[in-house]
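Annotated sample (chain length 233).
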Amino acid sequence: VAVAAAGSAYADGHEGGVSVSLSADIGFESLDGVNGFGHDYDLSWSGSPVTDGGLTVAASGNADDETSPSVSVSGGFGSIAFGDEDDALDAAMGGIDGGDTTSGAADLAGADASIGEDPLLYTSPDLGGATAYVSVSLEGSAENTTGETGFGAGASLSLGGISVGGGFSQLGDASLAGVSAGLGAGPADVKVAFQTGEDAAGNAISNLDASAAADLGGNTVGVQFVTDLEAET
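Output written by the structure step:
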């Protein structure tokens, strides 16, 4: 399955122009009984503008074989996305605020743990404020080298300023389940998330995370709390 797009932009006041083309491919592969999703992309650009002095300057470039592109197809049926995507659990929960503004505090607790790598993610259309998610990660996919097939399912519901979400993800012996809730009241936004399960080695996973943020006239002030209940950090 492939999708491609091409377009061009013309430099104002100059002859010549710049063109960009993009192709992205996703597919199913089976090699010696190992099934997986394969993907690739190719981005090419070229230009040959003419300067005011009459000189033609040509340039071109190409980038390809990115290990984790993201490709999606959407319509009335919802969306099917593959590559650098969340699994169904992460998509349904949404996560807490502020992980990138607290000097990596969220990493202390392994907040937003994930076990479904490189998935194919289906997102349903809006179902009266609810959204359903289903994901699958095959053992031969680029980021899934465990030799196991992973599955996930989740759902989220948004009603006014209240949002809830939850789901589960399983990959071989590793499993993870979680729930989240959010409340938006005026300029304030409060979120809480809980995850529990175990990794492939049988180690327990248990995280409780929360955040609160307020928009104060264009500036945001927030607080975040993340804890690993098993390691007590």
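Annotation: DSSP finds two helices and 14 strands in the chain.
Annotation: The mean pLDDT is 78.
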